[in-house]
């Protein structure tokens, strides 16, 4: 199901048919460095990740992480969406793109659309984002889409200190 469209991108729900892409994305060097190893090493693992993560969130909340694909080529390049984690009070925006599609403006385009969707379509009053302290590109992108650094946090059960960014609807 298509959720949003931008000049260059289609942002849509993930399905189990996207398992091969998810397998590639979750094992991309930048994913492993900044997000971490999710233990997705096979197509079956990728299908399970989609079913128990994004698809479960769609059915419970009506939103989640979305596949981001190039409009013309219908080629998946990343994910961008809204996540409700038990460990955060607010919904957070998340994104990740294959290394070869980074620094081309795609993450910015998808994040602007997703933030707008969360505020205007879903009526969210505040959206947050978390990123590792050394992920300077993500921090810059969050600031570029209008979010502001709030403070460092450690999520329950974790040890890594993360940067928390916030955005408020107008």
Description of the structure:
With 170 residues, this protein is an alpha+beta fold. It has one domain (2-168): 3-Layer(aba) Sandwich (Aminopeptidase). It contains 5 helices and 8 strands. It has helices at residues 19-25, 29-34, 43-61, 106-121, 136-144, and strands spanning 2-5, 9-13, 65-70, 75-83, 91-97, 126-132, 148-153, 162-168. The protein has an 8-stranded mixed sheet. Strand 4 (75-83) and strand 5 form a beta hairpin. Helix 1 packs across helix 3. The chain is globular. The two termini are 28 Å apart. The mean pLDDT is 95. Pfam families: Acetyltransf_3 (PF13302). This is RimJ/RimL family protein N-acetyltransferase.
Tally of separate helices: 5
Oligomer: single chain
The H/E string reads EEHHHEEEHEHEE
The count of strands amounts to 8
Q: In which order are the strands of the major sheet placed? A: 1-2-3-4-5-6-8-7
* Integer tally of domains: 1
Global mean pLDDT: 95
- Please tell me how large the radius of gyration is: 15 Å
Helicity level: 25-40%
| CATH level 4 superfamily | Gcn5-related N-acetyltransferase (GNAT)
Globally, the shape reads globular
Secondary-structure-derived class: alpha+beta
For this structure, what is the CATH class?
Answer: Alpha Beta
CATH topology: Aminopeptidase
Sheet with most strands:
8 strands, mixed
Termini gap:
28 Å
- Please tell me the CATH architecture by its name: 3-Layer(aba) Sandwich
Segments where pLDDT lies below 50 for 5+ residues? none
Share of β-strand residues: 25-35%
């Amino acid at each position: 199901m298509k959720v949003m469209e931008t000049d260059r991108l289609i942002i849509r729900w993930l399905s189990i048919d996207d398992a091969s892409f998810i397998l590639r994305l979750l094992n991309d060097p930048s994913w492993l460095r900044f997000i971490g190893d999710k233990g997705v090493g096979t197509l079956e693992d990728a299908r399970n990740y989609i079913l128990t993560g994004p698809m479960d969130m769609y059915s419970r909340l009506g939103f989640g992480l979305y596949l981001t694909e190039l409009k013309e080529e219908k080629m998946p390049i990343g994910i961008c969406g809204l996540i409700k984690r038990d460990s955060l009070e607010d919904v957070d925006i998340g994104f990740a793109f294959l290394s070869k599609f980074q620094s081309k403006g795609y993450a910015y385009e998808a994040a602007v659309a997703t933030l707008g969707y969360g505020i205007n379509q879903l009526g969210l009053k505040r959206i947050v984002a978390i990123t590792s302290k050394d992920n300077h590109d993500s921090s810059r992108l969050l600031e570029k889409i209008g979010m502001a650094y709030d403070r460092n946090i450690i999520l329950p059960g974790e040890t890594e200190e993360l940067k928390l960014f916030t955005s408020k609807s107008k």
